[in-house]
Write a structure and sequence with these properties.
Blueprint (H helix, E strand, L loop, with lengths): L2 H13 L14 H4 L14 H14 L4 E4 L4 H12 L3 E4 L17 E4 L5 H5 L3 E4 L3 E3 L4 E4 L16 E7 L3 E2 L2 H7 L7 E3 L4 E3 L5 E3 L6 E7 L3
Parallel strand pairs: 1-12, 2-3, 2-4, 4-7, 5-8, 7-12
Antiparallel strand pairs: 5-6, 6-9, 10-11
């Protein structure tokens, strides 16, 4: 039996699509018929404040500004972020709760609802405001799954500036915890800092395949 056959046999057995593998000697491969251990480290022992602190640290390591605020000051935080960026024409998902977030009365800011805007039209805006599905503290990752307030994938990939509103209750410690909470089958985008890449000489360039600037408003309840 080749190594490839043994690996594939173990995968089939773990998925329940096979009865294990048989060795050349005629015996069953014990590892192939055993249950795959799922005892992942979850980080469940971290307190809420520790989760927030770790996520903030990781995001800032990526060059992502984090603006904490209480629920009643989300609109003010958005206003400050957009003003600091000089963003006046901002696109939002059609199902973003603008009134609930206090965004419907922003002065000097035109909110453009995405109704299938072309990439050229999206690129002509100053940025995008969305919510998120989850955030992973250990990796500093924001996850979008296309549900309410997040919009389609192009909406957060084309504009050069992405302002993401994240609730502290959406922060988990580790990747396994995030996967367990995500709805299977939804198209997910995992964002760890602004879009960036480096060439062979390690010259870092941001904004290559996504926003050049990512900023997070973190809603923290007392």
């Amino acid at each position: 039996m080749t190594a490839r056959e043994e690996v594939l046999g173990r995968i089939r057995a773990a998925l329940g699509s096979g009865a294990g593998v048989t060795s050349e000697a005629g015996g069953a491969s014990g590892a192939g018929s055993e249950d795959v251990p799922r005892a992942y480290r979850t980080g469940a022992d971290l307190s809420d404040s520790a989760l927030i602190g770790l996520l903030t640290e990781r995001l800032r390591d990526y060059g992502t500004p984090v603006r904490p605020c209480p629920p009643g000051e989300v609109a003010a935080a958005v206003r400050q972020s957009l003003a600091g960026r000089g963003a006046r024409r901002v696109v939002v998902p059609p199902d973003l709760d603008q009134a609930g977030l206090g965004l419907d009365g922003l002065a000097d800011v035109t909110l453009i609802t995405d109704d299938g805007l072309s990439p050229v039209a999206l690129d002509a805006t100053d940025g995008v405001v969305t919510t998120a599905a989850l955030a992973i503290a250990e990796t500093g990752t924001i996850i979008l799954d296309g549900s309410a307030g997040q919009g389609r994938r192009a909406l957060t990939l084309v504009p050069d500036y992405h302002l993401c509103i994240l609730d502290a209750s959406q922060v988990v410690a580790t990747v396994p915890q995030a996967v367990a909470r995500l709805a299977p089958g939804r198209p997910c985008t995992w964002i760890s800092g602004p879009s960036a890449t480096s060439d062979i000489e390690l010259d870092r360039v941001q904004g290559v395949h996504g926003p050049r600037t990512l900023e997070v408003i973190l809603v923290v309840r007392p």
